[in-house]
Design goal:
By secondary structure, the chain is an all-alpha fold. The protein has helices spanning 2-24, 32-37, 44-51, 68-71, 76-99, 112-122, 131-144, 147-182, 191-199. It has 9 helices and no strands. The longest helix has 36 residues, at 147-182.
Length: 218
């Protein structure tokens, strides 16, 4: 009897210990990324497919849109509407640049100092304004292959360079004085080159378009 009881107790104890081991055994650990997100990590190919969409649908960072507008090609009427919309936007940008609207200007043209420099250059007739005409004249002389005229070209080019340099110094001094009076503390870095390059352009081709006429007071 005592043997059976002890044997039975031994068996029960073994079963209990095994059950306790089974119950107390730690669950199979999941990868850290899977445990954190609560879902298995997708394969690279699946992630790439979800990241990139069609040209019309654009690109997303993991969510794939399956709407008809992003999976079906545009119709002929929709393409025409897109072209018309793009044309209107280009015209708006061009008109804004001509008016000198800060929203449409590039970083090179923005700021009160650049606007004042443009007005100063546009309000004066300068020798540099005829730079493009002089270049066309020199090109015609070179094409003509006339020995008499070709001998004068080098002197004309030298004179043109001297005129531009002298005019650049005059513009620089005038702008520094004007900025000190109108916009004290405003940076004049790069302003001289900006004004000189504008003065060398043909007036009707300048962008933004001139706001003042020649001879106007600034």
């Amino acid at each position: 009897m005592f043997r059976r009881s002890s044997a039975g107790a031994t068996d029960d104890t073994a079963q209990d210990s095994q059950g306790a081991q089974v119950q107390g055994a730690p669950a199979k650990e999941r990868p850290a990324a899977e445990a954190k997100k609560g879902r298995p990590t997708p394969k690279r190919s699946a992630a790439e497919r979800n990241r990139y969409q069609s040209i019309q649908g654009g690109r997303s960072s993991g969510t794939r849109t399956t709407t008809a507008a992003r999976t079906t090609p545009l119709t002929k009427e929709e393409k025409g509407q897109e072209r018309e919309r793009a044309r209107i936007e280009r015209n708006q940008r061009m008109e804004g640049m001509k008016r000198g609207d800060e929203r449409y200007l590039s970083a090179r043209d923005r700021g009160p100092a650049r606007r004042l420099a443009r007005d100063y250059v546009d309000a004066h007739r300068r020798p540099s304004e005829y730079y493009m005409y002089a270049l066309v004249l020199l090109l015609i002389v070179l094409i003509s292959r006339s020995k008499a005229l070709n001998g004068v070209v080098s002197y004309l080019v030298l004179a043109l360079v001297v005129v531009i340099i002298v005019d650049g110094f005059l513009i620089r001094n005038a702008l520094r004085k004007l900025i000190a009076e109108r916009l004290p503390g405003e940076s004049t870095r790069g302003l001289t080159m900006y004004a000189v390059m504008r003065s060398m352009q043909i007036r009707r081709m300048r962008m933004p378009a001139p706001r003042v006429k020649p001879g106007a007071k600034i």
